[in-house]
Design a protein that fits this description.
The chain is α/β, with parallel strands linked by helices. About 40% of the residues lie in helices and about 10% in strands. The chain has 2 domains: about 350 residues, Histone deacetylase domain (Arginase, Chain A, 3-Layer(aba) Sandwich); about 45 residues, no CATH class.
């Protein structure tokens, strides 16, 4: 990635400061939804061109499909976010950068799909950039839900290679930076935010955006030999963990546990953004690490356990992951977090109505069973008159009970 100067990093075309208050991204969410954020518009369809990039452009929808196969959550009700508008994006992006996305060649560079340069921009806006904007809106909303409920997972987002003036690495909008800006603008009590970036690649986007910010702590653990190797951005990392290629479970998980614990002890955040890329998985042609599927599940559990133990709100973003199998791994990891009671997946799913319906049926059965028992006793040949027992036996009027 091309290097830019520090001055360019902070330039933002006289950005208005009151945009967060006017945004529709922070909407009210009913208690009938679990804190998972997704909508079908996340997925990218570009006449098959999306297949020219290793990224699974329908990964996000596949995660939800796998989750709905799980027992008890077949009718999982997720939260549907709004699309980030230009005024929303201006909180972190310069006007000149947003204008640059109206040129197809720039979108092609960001998505790393060269033929996209020949596609009319209006088509790219609808099929590529709009999905990114919906995912960005999902990340922002996740920040609000995490503050209200303690946790939230955006089944998308994590565009950690994009910053205020430049995109790249399949990242067109700086959703991590935007999420943090919204939290800081809407929750004055939050003064310290931590980014835990465990994607296989360095998160140079948010690092450039928050260069020199003492209220933002960045823990970044990545493969030292791959893209973007952004030397300037590394200056913003407070805890840098550089991995050798093909690092395996034992070493990887030990480093995760040690450095997440160390970072939390060192900084005491009031909000955590967890960038949970699955491109660390063995076989990923871009991440070039060798963490197993079970290793990813254990990694996410370690992070959630350490953060929630401190009662700190956490936002999880799914970020990178370039194999078709990653969707199932993400779903399995979310399900594991639920089974370990680190997140509450039973909130407002079909479990609640099922239990309510079952209870009503059971009460009806009991009601009619008691009534039938009473009728049987009253009309029994053992009675001389209706409802009067033939003898003084105390047990003769006892109905069958459960």
């Amino acid at each position: 990635m091309a290097s830019v100067s520090p001055e360019e990093t902070v330039e933002n075309d006289s950005m208005p400061k009151n945009m967060a208050a006017e945004s529709k991204l922070y909407m009210d969410v009913g208690d009938d939804s679990v804190s998972l954020i997704y909508r079908d518009e996340y997925n990218i369809h570009l006449l098959g061109m999306e297949k020219l990039h290793p990224f699974d452009a329908c990964k996000w929808g596949n995660v939800v499909k796998h989750l709905k196969k799980k027992q008890w959550i077949k009718e999982l009700k997720v939260v549907s976010p709004n699309e980030a508008t230009e005024s929303d994006l201006r909180l972190v992006h310069s006007a000149s950068y947003l204008r640059s996305l109206k040129w197809s060649i720039n979108v092609a560079k960001i998505t790393e799909v060269a033929p996209a340069a020949l596609v009319p921009n209006i088509f790219l806006q609808k099929r590529v950039l709009k999905p990114f904007r919906y995912q960005t809106g999902g990340s922002v909303l996740a920040g609000k839900l995490a503050m209200e409920r303690g946790w939230a997972i955006n089944i998308g987002g994590g565009f950690h290679h994009c910053w205020g003036n430049e995109g790249g690495g399949f990242c067109a909008y700086a959703d991590i930076s935007l999420t943090i800006h919204f939290v800081l603008n809407n929750y004055p009590s939050v003064e310290r935010v931590m980014i835990i970036d465990l994607d296989a690649h360095q998160g140079n986007g948010h690092e450039r955006d928050f260069m020199g910010r003492k209220d933002i702590y960045i823990l970044d653990m990545y493969n030292k030999y791959i893209y973007p190797n952004d030397s300037y951005a590394k200056k913003a990392i407070r805890r840098r963990v550089e991995l050798f290629a093909y690092t395996q479970d034992e070493e990887y998980l030990e480093k995760v546990s040690t450095h997440v614990e160390g970072a939390l002890n060192e900084f005491s955040p009031q909000m955590v953004i967890y960038n949970a890329g699955t491109d660390i998985m063995e076989g990923d042609s871009l991440g070039l690490l060798s963490v197993t599927k079970q290793g990813i599940i254990e990694r996410d559990e370690i992070v959630f356990r350490k953060v929630t133990h401190r009662q700190v709100p956490i936002v999880m973003l799914t970020s990178g992951g370039y194999q078709r199998s990653t969707a199932a791994v993400i779903a399995d990891s979310i399900w594991n977090l639920s089974k370990k009671s680190l997140i509450n997946m039973l909130r407002s799913t079909s479990v609640i109505p099922m239990v309510g319906t079952f209870t009503k049926i059971l009460l009806s059965v009991l009601k009619w069973r008691h009534l039938w028992s009473a009728i049987t006793i009253c009309w029994s040949p053992a009675t001389h008159d209706i409802g009067v027992p033939a003898s003084g036996n105390p047990g003769s009027l006892v109905a069958t009970t459960l």
